[in-house]
Write a structure and sequence with these properties.
The complex is a heterotrimer of chains A (387), B (296) and C (91).
Chain A: H1 3-23, E1 25-29, H2 30-40, E2 45-48, H3 55-67, E3 71-74, H4 78-90, E4 95-99, H5 101-106, H6 108-117, E5 121-127, H7 143-147, E6 159-160, H8 165-182, E7 185-191, H9 192-196, E8 198-202, E9 227-228, H10 235-255, E10 259-262, E11 269-272, H11 275-290, E12 295-300, E13 302-304, H12 308-315, E14 320-325, H13 331-339, E15 345-349, H14 358-386
Parallel strand pairs in A: 2-3, 2-4, 4-5, 5-7, 6-7, 11-12, 11-14, 14-15
Antiparallel strand pairs in A: 1-8, 6-13, 10-12
Helix pairs in contact in A: 2-3, 2-8, 4-6, 11-14, 12-13
Chain B: E1 33-36, H1 54-68, E2 75-79, E3 94-97, H2 103-113, E4 118-124, H3 125-131, H4 133-141, E5 147-152, H5 182-185, H6 191-196, E6 201-208, H7 212-230, E7 235-241, H8 245-248, H9 252-266, E8 270-274, H10 284-287
Helix pairs in contact in B: 1-7, 2-4, 3-4
Chain C: E1 20-22, H1 32-36, E2 42-44, E3 57-59, H2 70-74, E4 80-84
Antiparallel strand pairs in C: 1-4, 2-3
The chains are: A alpha/beta (387), B alpha/beta (296), C alpha+beta (91).
Amino acid sequence: MTAPHAAHAANAGRHSDREAARRSRVLMKGNEAIAEAAIQAGCDAYFGYPITPQAELLEWMARRMPELGRAFVQAESELGAINMALGAAATGARVMVSSSSPGISLMAEGMSYMAGSGTPMVLVNIMRAGPGLGSIGPSQSDYFQATKGHGHGDYRVPVLAPASISEAMELMATAFELAERYRTPVMVVADGIMGQAMEPVELKFRCPERRTFDWVLTGAAGRPARIVRSIDLQPELLEKRNLDLQHKYAEIARREVRWSGYLLDDAEYVLVAYGTAARVARSAVDKARAKGVKVGLFRPITLWPFPSRELARLAGRTHGMLTVELSSGQMVEDVRLAVEGRCPIAFHGRMGGLVPTPDEVLGALKALRGKVERTRHAHAAKEGGEK
Amino acid sequence: MTVHRDTRAAPAGSAPSSATPAVAHPVDPHAPRLVYARPEVLVDRSTHYCPGCGHGVVHRLLAEVLTELYLPAHTIAVAPVGCAVFAYDYLSVDFVEAPHGRAPAVATGIRRVRPEAFVLTYQGDGDLAAIGTAEIVHAAARGENITAIFVNNGIYGMTGGQMAPTTLVGQKTTSSPSGREAASMGYPIRITEMLAQLEGVGYAARGSVADAGQIGKLKAMIKRACQIQLAHGGFALVEALSNCPVGWGMTPRESLEHLRGPVAQAYPLGVIVDRLAAPPKDTFAETCPAPAHPEA
Amino acid sequence: MAIGRVAVQSPRPPVPWAPLVIAEARCKGCELCVEACPHSVLALDTSRVNVLGYHPVQLIDAAGCTSCALCARVCPDCVFTVWAAPKEGHR
């Protein structure tokens, strides 16, 4: 073969690899990608209600689930949807519900019951700005709602926070896995941007293995009747039930923390952000680094269990942290709790559906750095004066 | 398809295969004959219900009907919030607890993923007609193939006797101490008639525990409501007018008189709608063939 | 009321013979059976209380009982197991 032919053959080989890769990458809207990922992860039943900005998720499910002979119901309300999920999950089905902030509020009761009775489920919140009717713009103002157990009672739910559509697709499988392994509802929180945007994604899916459960309701043929419930009127019994839940949460906290770091090794300052805010923060990190500022990004992926230990360790070797959120500052409280005063914490956020820009973040970082430098000079001067 | 095992055993495991009544000494015509005994699916324990409370009667009728139709092994039932919150302690079938009012939605979830199960809800009037109005209306509108038992005693019993949407005008309760006043508190809801208008409803009937005759008719309604489900005839509802002696401030006997009188006047008895044209099949095995997949 | 195809635990007829077996420990003294009985063979035993603290029902006239089972039909607590008398020649 002549040299040009060989080169052409080599190029053709690379070209067909690229072609194959291209064909398995498609442009998908976040809501639809999340829905398809759930379907490919073995979702047996979906219950939902239309609400912006996640209506496309419901619509995708409305088309695909009946195609596959699986259960789909557009419920009369989010209250209906979460309770349908409770029933289906009690029989061992792999169940998903999705909504946006005001609808999630309606699901608080159901979440508490599902946490209390140990029924697995995945709930996706495509967050929008509130409070109340608010707007349909993106937000992260449901952090408290998600992580502090938004229904009544002493419970937690694992909360996963993807920062891209691809990651959201991956995390759907993880969410079902966690839900079934620990018998708990699991929340996946994205925001209106992620729900509505379109990004190129790999059509690569994962379907977690099915477990056999000894507690599911299937009809008491040849065995004693089973009850799925959360009530226990005798205080000692209810305390035992609660202690069991707390042990479960402790195990989840030990084993399931997820986070990601960007340029943290030599970082003097750290931006802490999740979801869409993390993408903005990452751009800010890149811009700052270009100017010689040693800043990195710490991105929690599990909002609960919160990566407190990792953050605390990091705080020991940084001058300051800037938390960036699409809210008035909710995760920043957990950052402060984790850091326990080891370094100063600052916050930058926007509300109402607005998204901070990288330049805004840089401005806040500059202010933090200024403050930290002034404090250090003041201390140095004081010590110098005292000598 | 949902990946579930069909755990439906043949009826042989749970009930005698013969169709004749169980007798103590089948070969001896001179032996005493058992006329009535507690069905086994009703747990042998005393209940927390007040003396004379109709819940006990309805539980028993349900137990009898489920047994006669060979259903206990296939039943997944939904318990309410109300006096019957512990229904699962008295009926030994698989049960899930529902939040207040949500039983029809919970049952919908079960029905949609367990096509082979017999799905049952049991609710009181506060549960079904107050906080749960949306859930029952939409489960009925969707024609969910479930059987809903609605025990209506016109009061919130468990929480101490407050007014319910079904309380009669003039009736004194702890939250209508001077008697229910229509102007500020509205009129009682005849929810069964409301639901009967929906095409998804295959059967809607109202019976009563007021006397032995009514109890017999109520049992027939409950049986029909179960058979409607077996025949995939849509949503089936039986409202059982019941008493609350303690909440009403009456003795059990007085409470039944009240049930026969003012309550029956406000809530007419009878079958309101029965849309199933052909007589339904009698046994679960006959009407619901096993699913085709190999895990059966 | 026929029991139909009922899966029961096959109770044995009471010895000595009586048409009713009363699960006294479940009775709550509501008197609905007393009212329902067409032959007035039932009454509460007001001289004592059962384990629940109620005056339990008792059969005061076994011969007058026709095993109609209306008591069992109205009882909310499944107190009654009803037997029909053996044909003559037994006892």
